[in-house]
Write a structure and sequence with these properties.
The complex is a heterodimer. Chain A is α/β, with parallel strands linked by helices. Chain A folds into two domains: 167 residues, D-Maltodextrin-Binding Protein, domain 2; 200 residues, Periplasmic binding protein-like II (D-Maltodextrin-Binding Protein, domain 2, 3-Layer(aba) Sandwich), CATH 3.40.190.10. In chain A, the strands form two sheets. Chain A has a six-stranded mixed sheet, with helices on both faces. Among the domains of chain B are: 54 residues, no CATH class; 143 residues, MetI-like fold (Orthogonal Bundle), CATH 1.10.3720. Classes of the chains: A alpha/beta, B mainly alpha.
């Protein structure tokens, strides 16, 4: 109202403001809107991760990794950059595979936002091989890559039925049994690793029998083994077939080996040989610190975990014995997606990173066990010891285990099935449910989870 | 504001020079320019509000409406997360299977019971705390800020701490219970302990927030109501029952609605309270809520079609709850 009485000049200049404001508003809307659309359409294409050449004429290769794979920590990038002055390496690490893998699947299915190199965990490799192989280049055709450079089962895991190898193996997790020498001695069991290995050689039932002997002598203060999940995993991983048959059918419910492993674990649980714990939970960590159990199924990386959770006085009290049957737990692959901008350079880098010499270096720094048998004779492996296990020649023990691991049929939903058997199955037996009830709960959960 | 009402008012007659006397004839050119300007103002006045609200609706369309519709479309198909574009039409199968999906109804029951055990005590405690804070206290701002602190904590951080507190073997709560002779409780193993523990996290987090809302409403109640009640000989408790509570009725209704919506979407607490690695909400799905079941189907098991159908079923349940809520509140309003 007041403005109406203003002189015209003022009025006009007053009227100019809304124009400016409107322009501003429109600009804001437009920029917001286009920004939004651009954000949707262009997923990680332009930033440094896109793998474009950097200003100095160098080619940047990007790696998408999870966890602590340790290439950088072992100085391998620096070494490669020295050998190839035109190459610059950048890595993008997601800490947990549970967070890394769904994003990777998303990027693969939409074919955007992929790095030049992507890591895949062994738990997911069957699914990637089965559903995403056409997005990856064939690593078996890369110069210098030979099939027999890797453990045969490791190579098979990343290879499709038509012979395309989507990724090269980095590390593996050959399993042994880590045990507490002091607790074994207290329970009147032998503590020398040769003799301990003989207690249960070749048969998981003998392992349980040893557990019963242990329990009789040790009483209620400590348990023979860390968790039902750890035992079930160890038994299952030493089988040739577990949840899928060679034709890709789900057979977990009818496979006698799976039922036997489940029943064996349930028996151990009923007899009180395993703790009522879930691995990698805070309470389980505490039982490591408090020295509450005598054995744990143990790939090389587990020694690092135990070290991280133990009190200082536990150092040197552990030792490593051969498991009743060898199995694998963990390990990864490096693949090169087709959509990358530097496919050829990326393939060269992967071939170099997974070569025996580099795997041996990685083992020394990171404890990731090599998947290339040629590395097993290197001084880094043969001379390896660990703070937790004193002077035990862990390199030799794990090399021996790695060579005996069977070529196991793996399937896309292995993880869901095993998790059902563990977290909705055998753990219930430690809480007073019968083995039959536990099996029913587990299978009902798994069947519902598998049903599309 | 003055400028804006001016713009809106002046173009009504199409003339833009009410301040001028009709005697002095304005230049033709100037006049035309002014009509042009005024037409612009007119357009401005009519359309700029839409431009101002547009960002929200653009965002809503991209991140609200589109996913909603797409979820509905996906729910009629068999789709896997590994190949989201590869859809197989299955009609209403994903919906009909919900009827005999034990896990869905188990999750629905859990959502309801966790909702009740968390919401009812939460609102009652909030009311009590608000009543106390409403008195003259020393350092009242401190108490009020302290009440809101849990609300400002992230769910993940809070839940991880509660997982440690509720640990079976080394948890502080079992340790305290043990000191008074109670056997250790497997908080994550059994149904009721699990649900009570999850509810505790929710109560801890939201009580202060509701208390502040009640407090704000209480301070708006006119003091003379209390005075006259006191003159009539009403005790403090009577005053609370007959003055405070009736005046708070709309506020209570608001908090009930908000808490119900929150309770139907409980997700982070049971996910992180699960001692297992998955999203099954305990070994026997003791505290798996609908939100968690949806997540498990979609992201752990990778069945996008099934997960979408569950999402729409949850939506339908929420609408039913909304209608019931509406009926009750209309009743309440009619009776007052």
């Amino acid at each position: 109202m007041r403005a109406r009485t203003l002189p015209l000049t003022r009025q006009r200049s007053g009227g100019g403001k809304p124009f400016a404001r409107k322009a501003l508003a429109v600009a804001a809307v437009v920029s917001l809107g286009t920004g939004l659309l651009a954000g949707c359409a262009d997923d990680g294409g332009d930033d440094s991760s896109g793998g474009s050449s950097s200003g100095e004429g160098k080619t940047t290769i990007t790696l998408g990794l999870f966890g602590t794979m340790g290439f950088k920590e072992a100085g391998l990038y620096a070494e490669y950059e020295k050998l190839n002055p035109d190459i610059k390496i950048e890595e993008n690490v997601v800490e947990r595979n549970e967070n890394y893998y769904p994003a990777l699947v998303n990027h693969l299915t939409t074919n955007s936002g992929l790095m030049d190199v992507q890591a895949v965990e062994v738990a997911n490799i069957a699914e990637v091989v089965g559903t995403q192989a056409d997005k990856f280049t064939d690593m078996s055709k890369v110069e210098g890559v030979k099939k027999d450079g890797w453990l045969p089962w490791k190579w098979e895991q990343a290879t499709t039925k038509d012979g395309q190898t989507i990724g090269l193996g980095t590390d593996v997790g050959p399993m042994a049994i880590c045990y507490r020498k002091d607790l074994f001695e207290k329970a009147g069991l032998p503590s020398d690793r040769e003799q301990v290995g003989k207690l249960w050689a070749g048969d998981w039932n003998k392992f349980i029998a040893t557990g019963e002997k242990y329990k009789k002598a040790a009483g209620k203060d400590t348990f023979f083994m860390d968790s039902p999940g750890g035992l079930l995993n160890a038994v299952l991983s030493s089988e040739k077939e577990k949840f899928y048959d060679a034709s890709g059918q789900v057979i977990y419910k009818t496979n006698p080996a799976v039922k036997a492993a489940f029943d064996l674990t349930a028996e151990a649980a009923e007899k009180g040989l395993v703790q009522s714990q879930t691995q990698f939970q805070p309470a389980w960590d505490t039982t490591i610190a408090n020295s509450k159990f005598a054995t744990v199924a143990c790939p090389p990386w587990m020694l690092g975990y135990i070290k991280g959770k133990s009190k200082a006085d536990a150092a040197g009290k552990w030792d490593v014995a051969v498991a009743p049957k060898s199995g694998n737990w963990g390990g990864s692959f490096l693949g090169v997606p087709k959509s990358g901008k530097n496919v050829e350079e990326a393939q060269k880098l992967v071939a170099w990173l997974t070569a025996p010499e580099q795997q041996a270096k990685l083992f020394k720094v990171q404890g990731s066990f090599p998947s290339a048998p040629a590395a097993y004779s290197s001084p880094e492996v043969t001379g390896a010891t660990n703070e937790m296990t004193g002077d035990a020649p862990i390199g030799e023990i794990f090399s021996e285990a790695a060579k005996q691991i069977p070529v196991q049929v793996i399937g896309p939903k292995d993880q869901i099935i095993q998790q059902g058997l563990t977290d909705n199955g055998v753990i219930l037996v430690t809480k007073g449910k019968s083995a039959k009830e536990a099996w029913e709960t587990a299978t009902k959960t798994i069947d519902n989870n598998l049903d599309q | 504001m003055a400028t804006r009402s001016d713009i809106a008012a002046s173009p009504v007659k199409g003339g833009a020079a009410p301040g001028r006397t009709p005697g002095s004839r304005p230049v033709d050119k100037d006049d035309r320019r002014r009509t042009k300007l005024s037409r612009r103002w007119q357009r401005d006045a009519r359309w700029s509000p839409y431009a101002f609200v547009a960002p929200f609706f653009l965002l809503f369309a991209a991140f609200g409406l589109f996913p909603l519709i797409y979820t509905g479309w996906a729910s009629l198909h068999q789709v896997e997360l590994t190949a989201p574009t590869d859809m197989t039409w299955v009609g209403l199968k994903n919906y009909t299977r919900i009827f005999d999906d034990d896990f869905f109804w188990n999750a629905a029951r859990n959502t309801l019971t966790i909702g009740v055990i968390s919401t009812v005590p939460q609102l009652m405690i909030a009311m009590g705390i608000a009543h106390i804070l409403n008195y003259k206290l020393r350092a009242s701002t401190f108490w009020r800020v302290a009440m809101l602190a849990p609300y400002a904590t992230s769910i993940a951080a809070a839940t991880l701490v509660f997982v440690l507190l509720f640990g079976r073997d080394y948890g502080m709560i079992n340790w305290a219970l043990g000191a008074v002779g109670v056997d250790p409780i497997g908080w994550q193993d059994d149904k009721w302990p699990g649900q009570i523990a999850v509810s505790t996290i929710i109560i801890w987090r939201w009580t202060g927030y509701n208390a502040l809302i009640y407090l704000a409403a209480m301070q708006a109640i006119p003091q003379d109501l209390y005075e006259s009640a006191a003159l009539d000989g009403a005790s403090r408790w009577r005053q609370f029952l007959h003055v405070t509570l009736p005046s708070l009725r709309p506020t209570i209704l608001f908090t009930v609605v908000v808490s119900t919506i929150g309770a139907s979407q409980v997700f982070g607490e049971p996910l992180l309270f699960d001692p297992n690695k998955g999203a099954s909400g305990g070994a026997e799905h003791q505290f798996q809520t609908l939100g968690l079941y949806l997540y498990e189907q979609g992201w752990v098991n990778q069945h996008l079609g099934r997960a979408s159908a569950i999402a729409w079923a949850m939506f339908a349940i929420l609408i039913v709850i909304g209608i019931i809520n509406q009926l009750i509140s209309r009743r309440l309003r009619a009776s007052s």
